[in-house]
Amino acid sequence: MGRVKRVFQQIDPPARLLMGPGPINADPRVLRAMSAQLVGQYDPAMTAYMDETQALYREVFQTANEQTVLVDGTSRAGIEAALVSLIEPGDRVLVPVFGRFGHLLREIAERCGAEVHVIEVPWGQVFPLETITAAIERVKPKLLAVVHGDTSTTVAQPLEGLGEVCAQHGVLFYTDVTASISGNAFDTDALGLDAVTAGLQKCLGGPSGSAPATFSARAVEAIRSRASVEAGIRTEGDVTSSRRIASNYFDLAMIFDYWGPQRLNHHTEATTMLYGARECARLVVEEGLDQTVARHALHGSAMLAGVQGLGLEVFGDLEHKMNNVVAVVIPDGVDGDAVRGAMLTDFGIEIGTSFGPLHGKVWRIGTMGYNARRDTVLTTLSALEAVLRRAGAPVTTGGGVGAAYDVYADADRAAASSPVETRADAGTIAPEAASTDGTAGGAA
Amino acid sequence: MGRVKRVFQQIDPPARLLMGPGPINADPRVLRAMSAQLVGQYDPAMTAYMDETQALYREVFQTANEQTVLVDGTSRAGIEAALVSLIEPGDRVLVPVFGRFGHLLREIAERCGAEVHVIEVPWGQVFPLETITAAIERVKPKLLAVVHGDTSTTVAQPLEGLGEVCAQHGVLFYTDVTASISGNAFDTDALGLDAVTAGLQKCLGGPSGSAPATFSARAVEAIRSRASVEAGIRTEGDVTSSRRIASNYFDLAMIFDYWGPQRLNHHTEATTMLYGARECARLVVEEGLDQTVARHALHGSAMLAGVQGLGLEVFGDLEHKMNNVVAVVIPDGVDGDAVRGAMLTDFGIEIGTSFGPLHGKVWRIGTMGYNARRDTVLTTLSALEAVLRRAGAPVTTGGGVGAAYDVYADADRAAASSPVETRADAGTIAPEAASTDGTAGGAA
């Protein structure tokens, strides 16, 4: 065979500050949670963790949806589970595309056999409500599938008003919030959403590999009407729909039965990822969702002001920019990849490249999750100034850090007159030792 | 909304010894590897870990296959990726079913739109080679999909000879080795397999959530002929097949391009699971695959002798029993779930229940991965004797531990005359500090 048995060294990654569009550094608390030993799949401790994870994500998603679960895979596993479970071949699906992940929704919907109708705006822009409304009225889709925040362009599509339009036309309303969740204001139920999927590796501060998702009663009804019980565990009386979902792994009806009181065996839950997903949500709930969003707004503003203060241009509609990522135009004559390489090699800081029409034109710099902090913003701006200067680019000396400092000073002044909670001194949440009864805090 | 913001305690699972059919306790080394901080998706450190993971799993699978990758999901994600990427609607697929997971292969193949032909034997038995051969000649399938070891019945289907038959008839040959890999002799290339999928949570000693998989050149060709590049990252000249794979997430052509030198973005790799999967394989390669299998054979024999020594009957064809799990017939008049409950509550030991026709009839006891050890076997047998006696079942006092001790004594005697390597004193592998050059050991 010519195979050589090679033994590699233990995992020991270099220290990196991940300031790209995600993944970012996992919160150390998440990694600690993930280092806990396993328990059995149906151990009372495990099923309790599953129930708690559902409750925590109801808070993160701002929903009362019973069916709030984890899909075991990366964020696109959540997307595919939602789409393949909701879409039947031939269904009309409307996908407003304003970046890479809109194309992904389109492509997955196509693979589900949908008749996909696409509307597009140039990257960096979003749709006015009336454009999507007009398309709904024209296409009469079964499903509207739209990305909330698209890291490829840094903007978030406003979803306000779409829920009413969808309800009026009997359209199921789905969004992916992988890039935006807990870093930007988002309320599943207030927006009238039927299906929402996410991932851990952005503002939630965890590793990729688990996809939290939530489904309205209307979505659950559509999914359950296609239910099917696996042959190996089927008992008499179980029904299999002729409109069976095309995937077993992503069959949400089965996943609901696994997470629900039936505990009907489907996959073997990825316990370590569940530990991590639970801790991600626990961090947000402890800090308070509004405070988490406010923290992302603050550090995102500081980063934006900082790159502008360096004299750099930013890309995209700033009015709709997500709090947690900014696209910085690579100055003329500067080798974008060389700058990224120097940031990584010399400062241990990762900033992001770009896809599609923006490839080679912008860097993407994130301030999210555990890395939405003052020290990370100032460190990144300081390093960027140094690297750009060395690359021969014109930069405003001290302009990046200075502008960010100004944003923080303003925030500190505002906080002094009207205290804003931060993670370090979150007031509503009792310390860990005090929450041993499993409940704490007031109504959300 | 009536939602109440609840804060739950940190992850702190009870101490359990998981002696069921999996998941089992993760090797502490795997959990430590998984606690490492993340690096960026295309960080040189990350892509090096990906390459190393591929090399390590080539050794675990005993293959020279270039396309040896992880699918980001539980073991059934690996199964579905293999089947949906290989099967086109209308293809004939032959599935020999001898337990629950054969039914799963059938059901996934059906959802892929295959014309599925099933042959069955009663649970606990396996197929003679000539039965499968005759079915291949009759059905003329494109794909033979057969489970290797099925934990639902504890037996493993012998695969020897099937590769030749498949090659002769132009049939793609796929097996799932989730339950058997590294606990039982298995050689992908010698068996002539085209596709093999696995999971971490059995003999590999990791948590569920990553599915190692390997594909022959012939399988890769079949998959690549259906390749398609995602719209959001497509460039001119990229081709999209009209026979596009029905899933984006499980499109192996895309997954190969992500793992290959192109590094074409697909999902965001589940870094923490990759760290874990890599460490699982590193453990096996350090111990030596043959030694890992021998360890499972030893402790599996001791457990089998032990339950028989207690006076209990075992289920299934012992000639084909996997090393790593035994099905124990629940004695008449004994409440199987009450015994499992007492084992868990009073001794912290989990043993398994059963599915389908065996539900309520057998317990399944595993000896796998990190838990294939002398102390776990003796502790489990000792606890089982105590619990059964208290439940009023007739048991041979000391018969379980005694019989297991005899197996170990025989092994110790054999080792004294012809030394067998164990993990504690593995001879061929240099200690960690000595393998800093990333290579050690000789030819496999």
Write a structural description.
The structure is a homodimer of 444-residue chains. Mean pLDDT of chain A is 92; it is low at 424-444. Chain A has 13 helices and twelve strands. Chain A is an alpha/beta fold and 444 residues long. The first copy, chain A, is globular and about 75 Å long. Chain A folds into two domains: 28-285, 3-Layer(aba) Sandwich (Aspartate Aminotransferase, domain 2); 289-417, Aspartate Aminotransferase, domain 1 (Alpha-Beta Complex). The termini of chain A are far apart. Chain A has a seven-stranded mixed β-sheet with strand order 2-8-7-6-5-3-4, with helices on both faces. At the A-B interface, helix 1, helix 2, helix 3, helix 4 and helix 9 of A face helix 1, helix 2, helix 3, helix 4 and helix 9 of B. Chains A, B: It holds the Pfam family Aminotran_5. Chains A, B: Residues 45-351 form the Aminotransferase class V domain.
Question: Strands, helices and their partners?
Answer:
Two copies of one chain form a homodimer.
Chain A (H helix, E strand, L loop, with lengths): L16 E2 L9 H7 L9 H18 L5 E5 L3 H12 L5 E6 L2 H12 L3 E6 L8 H11 L3 E5 L14 H7 L3 E5 L18 E3 L13 E5 L1 H8 L27 H8 L11 H17 L1 H21 L4 E2 L9 E5 L6 H12 L1 E2 L11 E5 L7 H17 L8 H19 L27
Parallel strand pairs in A: 1-11, 3-4, 3-5, 5-6, 6-7
Antiparallel strand pairs in A: 2-8, 7-8, 9-10, 10-12
